[in-house]
Write a structure and sequence with these properties.
It is built from nine helices and three strands. By secondary structure, the chain is mainly alpha-helical.
């Protein structure tokens, strides 16, 4: 398979019809997200939602499942499923509150702290840093354009968390993206 350099691709985009350039650009965004997701699984053994959940627990300290769900914009059911998987891997543990037995708090284990410390940044953190460096009018223009694209794709009704990730948010990690499977998909 022959690869095209960024310069060649930019020239190709300039020579295409606008719709082709838009579709190629959308595909590049999807592909970048997919590649980053696979790299995260390969290097850290966790998905981006799992990483964000670990980070939220770390940042908030004693935190309930509902608070985590609100912070990372996922349903409590999805957060619970992700926590189940992280707990099986001994990266987190849950304990009932001493003050209110109806509340369950999530905590990082030492292994969870180690993994979080050594994991690469989620793709959206890299994006956020660069986005914040833009002028207000540039941020508004990008947001407006992306919102228009969402409408054109009739996707405004879809629920989405503020994370760049491909696939199910609560999927298993190592089995689905083992090195063997990643090598097959190249």
């Amino acid at each position: 398979m022959a690869f095209i350099s960024n310069t060649d691709l930019d020239l190709t985009l300039a020579n295409n019809e606008p719709i082709e350039a838009v579709l190629i650009t959308l595909r590049r965004l999807i592909r970048a997200t997919d590649l980053h997701s696979k790299q995260l699984v390969k290097t850290a053994g966790i998905t981006a939602p799992q990483l964000l959940l670990l980070k939220a627990i770390h940042d908030r300290g004693e935190v309930t499942i509902g608070e985590i769900a609100n912070e990372i914009s996922l349903s409590q059911a999805t957060v619970t499923t992700i926590l189940d998987r992280l707990e099986k891997r001994e990266l987190v543990f849950r304990a009932r509150s001493n003050q209110d037995k109806r509340k369950v708090h999530a905590y990082l284990t030492d292994a969870g702290r180690d993994l979080l410390q050594n994991a690469p940044l989620p793709l959206q953190e890299h994006f956020i840093r660069q986005f914040k460096d833009l002028k207000d009018w540039e941020q508004t223009m990008i947001l407006s354009s992306l919102q228009r694209v969402v409408q054109m794709m009739d996707a405004q009704h879809l629920d989405a968390a503020p994370m760049l990730e491909i696939g199910d948010l609560d999927r298993n990690t190592p089995e689905k993206y083992s090195e063997t499977n990643l090598d097959h998909k190249k």
